[in-house]
Amino acid sequence: MSVEVRVPTLGESVTEATVATWFKKPGDAVAVDEMLCELETDKVTVEVPSPAAGTLGEIVAAEGETVGVDALLATLSEGKGAAAAPKGKDKAPAVADPVDANAADAVDVMVPTLGESVTEATVSTWFKKVGDTVAQDEMLCELETDKVSVEVPSPAAGVLSEILAAEGSTVEASAKLAVIGGAVAADASSDAQAPSSQGNGGKDVSNAPSAEKLMADKGLSADQVQGTGRDGRIMKEDVMKAAAAPAPAATAPAPPAQTPRAPVAASDEAREERVKMTRLRQTIARRLKDAQNTAAILTTYNEVDMTEVMALRNEYKDLFLKKHGVKLGFMSFFTKACVHALREVPEVNAEIDGQEIVYKNFIHMGIAAGTPQGLVVPVIRDVDGMSFADIEKAIAEKGARARDGKLSMAEMQGGTFTISNGGVYGSLMSSPILNPPQSGILGMHKIQERPMAIGGQVVIRPMMYLALSYDHRIVDGKGAVTFLVRVKEALEDPRRLLMDL
């Protein structure tokens, strides 16, 4: 009996994805829930498990193709036993010229997941070279796409017989990256491991992906860098150290300018370094401009005296840590204060859908976080029903996952309001940009002692500027100011939160 493998639900307002990597090929036997392929949407990778045990038949959506929700990805024959592998109509004809003699066993390496509406990617780094023996699922290369760096694993064990997309080249979603010749079963991975380590300077360890990328940028090979990581693993810092010594000559010639710019003296041009924008940075630029072009963004400001919050935090932080196992920070206070204000001014928690206003009877709080890859906004769902401890635990857990690049797609979708804390970087004042389709974002800033006139006297108080950017199409100035005043009142007298005042 044939079973269809379809695109799973991708999340709120996400209508399409790109097939990133197939981990199985036609004819492979698969177990129920075994991962078949990966899809990429806006910010994360979505795994597609097998709905049944059996044999993978035809792959309908090849790697690099863009597919809609519920689209057919492949067919699966239920039951045991593997159909003939050459049945793979998508694969066999495309690998007629591999180096390996076993052409029938050759497997294409296709462009992995690129994300919603993304049609191309840039090859960042190849971790293997032609002739290297690779194990199944061993990382072959890394691509730069919208929100993340996408790793491309080997779909089978064998020999990397051909690389079709060199480092730095731009590839389309349907492009073929390489060919694995003499593909063998996964149990051959033990034989493939030893030769594959030669790409890492003879060490049987994988270098840090960030190090591999930087080596590619600097034109360095692994044998030119001394690894200081565990078992000799090359880290990013090792590459930076090596690049600072004899390597500058590799990056000195600046490529020609692609767009007209002001004249540059030859002596200055020799000291420039030209780096192509990553897919992440291009996407950030496009989406920020889209937000400005779509929403009527206006920002209102206020300031808050942090004396009471700081005193309360200092009084209970040790007991809080002992009981809940997490530190008591400022974010839980601000989150609680925003929940309190959003209940009174619900339009800040709403969104525009066509000619309708959608009011949310729940609060999913986005907490903007800066990562080495760029800005991401993990979402804490139903934060309005959470305690201080629950909020602090959620923020800590999602922050760690964001830094490690392990956030799932669902964890970054569905937010109704966002908090951005530029104060951690020393920002004193800024105007945050909306995170569409949300209608409001609160900007926190640096706490700074300033002289304040209180009761006819000048006293020194720890003050913070607050900024609320909002969509003026749905939120009036009165509502925005009321929201910010309620946040200020709740923080300057935290007891109001307990009494819902």
UniProtKB/TrEMBL annotation:
GO terms for molecular function: dihydrolipoyllysine-residue succinyltransferase activity. One of its GO terms (cellular component) is oxoglutarate dehydrogenase complex. SUPFAM superfamilies: CoA-dependent acyltransferases (SSF52777), Peripheral subunit-binding domain of 2-oxo acid dehydrogenase complex (SSF47005), Single hybrid motif (SSF51230). It is an enzyme of class 2 (transferase). Residues 241-271 are annotated as: Disordered. GO terms for biological process: L-lysine catabolic process to acetyl-CoA via saccharopine; tricarboxylic acid cycle. Residues 2-77, 106-181 form the Lipoyl-binding domain. This is Dihydrolipoyllysine-residue succinyltransferase component of 2-oxoglutarate dehydrogenase complex. It comes from Gymnodinialimonas phycosphaerae.
